[in-house]
UniProtKB/TrEMBL annotation:
Protein name, as recorded: DUF2264 domain-containing protein
Region of interest (Disordered), ranges: 542-591
DUF2264 domain residues: 21-369
Organism placement in taxonomy: Bacteria, Bacillati, Actinomycetota, Actinomycetes, Kitasatosporales
Composition bias, Low complexity: 552-562
Pfam families in the record: DUF2264
InterPro entries: DUF2264_N, UCP014753
Ranges in coiled-coil conformation: none
């Protein structure tokens, strides 16, 4: 597999090579054959090299089988059973061994490994897609044992997020083949999904603190995929009108989603489970398969090819043909505790397009430009609370996050870099330092204490997101035990925090620039903040040396970028003052510029350089601006934050006035005459 000479931000060298269905099929075949050497004797467990997940090696072995079985199923169904590599027989042997209670290769029950519920859904969907070639040819004994294993899902409690659909699709399949199912379970799954729907095609992946705050790629590869596949499995037995309801929601979602892919093919780098990589294509293919997409066949073809090319050309597949734990190359900093060696094979969902025949328009239409290549845009996504901008000149998509942060609004949480940053992009990523408790540097507006530690942001209160502007507020807080801090999208164990002032942050976006403004207010009247204000720009790779895989430990392949999952990275930082007054900038090897320029109160510029902190390259850097003294209540701090191919020659103007109720009104005038108004209200007292 070709390796990049740069960190891979530019458009892939040859995305056209991936526009053909046959090329996708060959890659699927290669990936399936590559895992065979790691299978148990009868194929029920595929134990890939690498560090085990929190669920343990037994569960990881089942995960290896289930996730690759789904890929094999898409391949078999798409070829109408033509099977020169013997996938059907190979996986049928594994099914028989996995569900045999007396087999040394048996799968864990759901009581023995909760993660098995996730993998059961992949197995159920794969069995549905391959009925004539696998299910119908299994022995009566194996079919009975398989239904016994799946049947243990009936009536069980499920985590209240996308996991409810693992029960839904598993019982749906069982229902169609005479297995155990319960109407109450199916009804509850459908009803709960309605509670999580926010409108406009957006779901929250469960509720946190009773609120819709959980937004990430699970909206596409789970909350839209499983409901429609549920109706596909049930066919005429599906509730009347349900399929059309889900199709219409997917149409709405894809109208937004197509704007969240960069011109280089990279999906938005935000949220957990990013090691699933091109699983991000799952909603696109689902839309095409279910006639539920506003994306033209030509754009679908071009977008999918660009994304697959982005990952394959940047080292996602190792020399032995396995998907590694990372984004480009192996990088453990972005993983979660549930990530195991086979977890990346959730990317199998990104091959759902193989279910469509070679004659389908998504495989024959002339590839069309991506949304970001058709012209600059600004979109407000009300569901997640995001402001989205894209610029055609460089293909960069940026998200300014004033919405969901995957946290309970009732208590302070430690920041997780996948949810708590102020900005996310297709061309920039968070940093993963060794110190998980130090707070954010990049993509941030924060307060820094005397020890140099940045305040954490979660939970964020969304105040407004509309018309190219957004405002949110948080109570600054610092972990009391910074050394024990962890990154966890679900909050992690209870932790103590030292609380500080209120920080209200606003944004106005246009093109490549965000005007970022902030006010600091004491938590109690008369308090004087003891912290300084710091704005962080976008972190970029600054060298051509890619992420390197360290020497493997005995018995497995080592992974770079972190110690134990969630406990911070192994990266190191060095700081240097900027030589430009009131400005700091960094430039990536392929010409992207990240710059922050003072527009009020932030004259001290610096650049923080990192080694081993980025999933894109070994070396990275972030431009920073800092106030010279402790934050002053009644002052609005402002900066222009840029990410793009060229730094704007003229920056917007900013004027602050105060309204009678204490609200700071910030009027932004852009060089082209366009204007925004951002209001920063005073926080509640008491």
């Amino acid at each position: 597999m070709p390796q990049p000479s740069t960190p891979g931000h530019a458009r892939p060298a040859d995305p056209a090579a991936w526009t053909g269905r046959a090329r996708w099929g060959r890659l699927a075949d290669d990936m399936l054959r590559a895992v065979r050497p790691y299978a148990s004797e009868r194929h029920a467990l595929i134990r890939l090299p690498g560090p085990a997940s929190a669920s343990g090696e037994w569960s990881d072995g089942l995960e290896g089988f289930a996730r690759t079985f789904l890929l094999a199923a898409f391949r078999l169904r798409g070829e109408d059973g033509h099977d020169p590599h013997g996938f059907a027989e190979w996986y049928a042997r594994g099914l028989a061994a996995g569900v045999d209670p007396g087999s040394p290769e048996r799968w864990p029950t759901f009581a023995e490994a909760n993660q098995a519920k996730v993998e059961a859904a992949s197995i159920a969907l794969a069995l549905h897609e391959t009925r004539p070639w696998i299910w119908d040819r299994l022995s009566e004994r194996t079919r009975a044992q398989l239904l016994d294993w799946l049947g243990l899902m009936v009536g069980t409690d499920m985590p209240q997020n996308n996991w409810i659909w693992f029960q839904g699709v598993t019982e749906a399949f069982a229902r169609t083949v005479g297995g155990q199912w319960r109407q109450e379970d199916l009804d509850r799954t459908i009803a709960t999904t309605e509670e999580w729907y926010q409108g406009g095609g957006w779901y929250s992946d469960g509720l946190t603190g009773g609120a819709h705050r959980n937004h990430d790629h699970y909206n596409g590869w789970a909350m839209h995929l499983y409901p429609l596949w549920f109706t596909r499995v049930l066919g005429a037995q599906a509730p009347e009108g349900l399929a059309e309801r889900y199709r219409e929601r997917l149409r709405l979602f894809l109208a937004d989603w197509r704007h969240l892919v960069g011109g280089n093919g990279a999906p938005l780098f935000q949220g957990r489970s990013l090691t699933y990589r091109w699983a991000a294509l799952a909603p696109l293919w689902t839309g095409a398969l279910f006639d539920a997409s506003p994306v033209t066949p030509g754009e679908t073809r071009g977008l999918a090819a660009r994304t697959l090319s982005y990952f394959t050309e940047n080292g996602a597949l190792t020399e032995d043909g396995l998907l590694s734990l990372g984004w480009h190359r192996p990088f453990r900093g972005l993983l979660q505790v549930y990530s195991g060696p086979a977890s990346p094979y959730w990317a199998s969902k990104g091959f759902a397009g193989l279910l469509l025949p070679a004659s389908h328009p998504v495989w024959t239409a002339e590839p069309e430009p991506l949304a970001v290549e058709r012209g600059d845009f600004t979109r407000t996504l009300d569901g997640p609370g995001w402001l989205v901008t894209g610029t055609a000149a460089d293909g960069v998509v940026r998200v300014v996050n004033h919405g969901g942060d995957h946290s309970d609004p009732a208590r302070p949480w430690p920041d997780d870099p996948h949810y708590a940053r102020l900005g996310y992009s297709t061309h920039a990523t968070p940093e993963y330092p060794a110190d998980a408790g130090a707070g954010a540097w990049e993509a941030s507006a924060t307060l820094v204490d005397e020890a140099g530690r940045a305040a954490h942001r979660r939970p964020v209160e969304r105040l407004s997101v509309a018309g190219g502007t957004g405002v949110s507020r948080s109570r600054a807080h610092w972990p009391v035990d910074a050394a024990g801090a962890t990154w966890d999208p679900f909050g992690g164990p209870p932790a103590a925090f030292r609380t500080g002032p209120w920080l209200t942050v606003g944004s106005a976006v246009r093109g490549s620039v965000e005007v970022r403004v902030a006010r600091v207010d004491p938590a109690a009247p008369g308090d004087a903040p003891a912290e300084r204000v710091r704005f962080g720009g976008w972190a970029l790779p600054v060298g051509t040396e890619p992420v390197r895989e360290p020497e493997a430990a005995p018995g497995g392949r080592a992974e770079s970028g972190a110690g134990p999952r969630g406990e911070g990275g192994t990266g190191t930082f060095a700081d240097a003052p900027s030589d430009e007054p009131g400005r700091a900038s960094v430039t990536s090897p392929d010409g992207l510029v990240s710059a922050v320029t003072d527009l009020g109160g932030l004259p001290l510029g610096s650049v923080r350089s990192g080694t081993g902190c980025s999933p894109l390259a070994r070396d990275s850097a972030t431009p920073l601006l800092m106030s010279p003294e402790e934050a002053t209540p009644g002052t609005v701090y402002a900066a222009a934050v840029h990410l793009g191919a060229e730094t704007p020659a003229v920056l917007p103007g900013v004027r602050t006035t105060w309204e009678p109720d204490g609200t700071a009104r910030v009027d932004v005038t852009w060089p082209d005459g366009h204007a925004h108004t951002v209001r920063l209200p005073a926080p509640p007292q008491g």
